Amino acid sequence: MALLQIAEPGQSAAPHQHKLAVGIDLGTTNSLVATVKSGEAVTLPDTNGQHILPSVVRYLNCGRKDVGLLAREKAAEDPYNTIVSVKRLMGRGVEDVRALGSEAPYHFVAGENSMPYISTVAGEKSPVQVSADILSVLTARAEESLGGELVGAVITVPAYFDDAQRQATKDAATLANIKVLRLLNEPTAAAVAYGLDQKAEGVIAVYDLGGGTFDISILRLNKGVFEVLATGGDSALGGDDFDLALATWVASELGIDTDTLGSGLARYLTEKAREVKEALTASDTVSVSVAHGDARGELTVSRDQFNALIDKLVARTLRACKRTLKDSGVDVAEVQNVVMVGGSTRVPLVREKVSEFFGREPHIDIDPDRVVAIGAAIQADVLAGNKPDSDMLLLDVIPLSLGLETMGGLVEKLVHRNTAIPVGRAQEFTTYQDGQTAMVIHVLQGERELVDDCRSLARFVLRGIPPMAAGAAKIRVTFQVDADGLLSVSAKELSTGVESSIQVKPSYGLSDGEIAQMLQESFSLAQEDLEKRRLREQQVEADRLLVALEQAIEADGNELLTAEERDMLLSEMAQLVALRNGDDADAIEKGIVVLSNESDFFASRRMDHGIQQALQGHTIDEIEEKK
Ligand code: ADP
Ligand code: MG
Description:
This protein is of the alpha+beta class.
């Protein structure tokens, strides 16, 4: 039996105390927990020796729930109460979830902020709660096996996860009573597991083929910062598709009619297919025996036969790699390291094709199911302070730019995509109209120039700005992105100190497909966007001048202008309005110059008049005193 150590009073044992911290890979199909023990990162098994926990939760009506293998076995039998692939629902709205269609066959009810809830026998469950239930099992496992309380966890998320999806993941941890030391990008974690962060720099490709998703990430390591050059993949392609292809083939070989396949038999066959597929990774041939109702038979499957069935699927992943490399602007020859992640990269054909594609041997020494959890554990160990000498300062970057809406529906980016986090950025803005006392701060995420093409994250109002002339107020807006990639925004009017702020917590976010598409569009439409932006800017400028002149004419026109002067101004203004409504930015710019010149006399007259008015009835002394 191990003896407990007791520190002498007043003598803290702290310097030598090892803090318990874990890394958690919260996967779509499977989840794992890992920690650093005696300097080595290892995944932690449950009491049955199983390291992998299927990310499946089954709710039972007695208030009990099963998490993991037991739940997965009942998925076919009790589909509405057994939640699989909940990660696909994280940080999404009801609309986004409906768009998933048959991928998420649950009974959804819309909750607050259009959050989707899944109705089960144990009540309505949000995706965040379901994830929290998975996390709880993992941390309980860790605390039991490590014999103490955890100081915190590093939880991994896909690189393309947006603010809402990251926030949802963090909320799940909070609900499970876990302190999040850091949310870490999955590909970054995999690179860390291989110690690639210890190298000076270079381009790394992380090929992650899991159960239901394929992700390819191109990272560039530069002075300890992992920059995500591009992410791509297919959110509906993975080992499950291999199973399906094999199951369909087995059924037809055995003369089982696939059209009339009941869901029970279909489930049985895909489960069988998975066993065969996994066995084929180590053996050249595997025999199957099917015995389910009337469907019976025996068959031997060779690896070559299996390869022929999945060849097209593997080719699809390579096409995605090609596209993503193109997006990243990196040539395949520049990729120095290829890291394999995900259970499906065990399949020999996948390894072969990937090394052929990149022209180099991928890293496969660390178990591809565990590599993400292991990288997260290494990072958790550092963040918990167990490696005081370590100079490893691992930084991530934000995946999409963050900005504010400005006049004319334009987005002013404050924090650009791929900026290393944590980061704080501030910029001063001003009011558009005389006497404006409130300002809407509209926070957006995306690469495009126009508000309509970006995703709205949050809106809030700064009130209590003292009335001033347009352009006189100084409002400082600060964006703060913490180490997990979560954003808070504050706005402050500098002359009065009036302040308001929010933690940006959107109810749902973007799908990975949408992000990929937004990035794609921003690249291909960059030129067009710039022109649109210039046009909008000139239109805003023109409007500003027109509004100012209108107000001035209304206020002082009768007193300070002759009828001819007034008509002249109005007709000049009408000309600018016509230009402004067209789409020629240069013409508008010229028109603005013309109208400003033509109206200069009026502006100086108003100024003189204003000074005269201010002076009327006051002695010079009074004025001197006021100074
Ligand atoms: P996710 O990241 O989606 O949670 P994983 O990385 O755990 O998923 O991968 C799960 C997939 O890996 C499943 O489709 C499973 O069948 C497959 N897999 C696991 N082991 C093997 C193996 N030995 N050979 C082939 N495929 C495997
Ligand atoms: Mg995974």
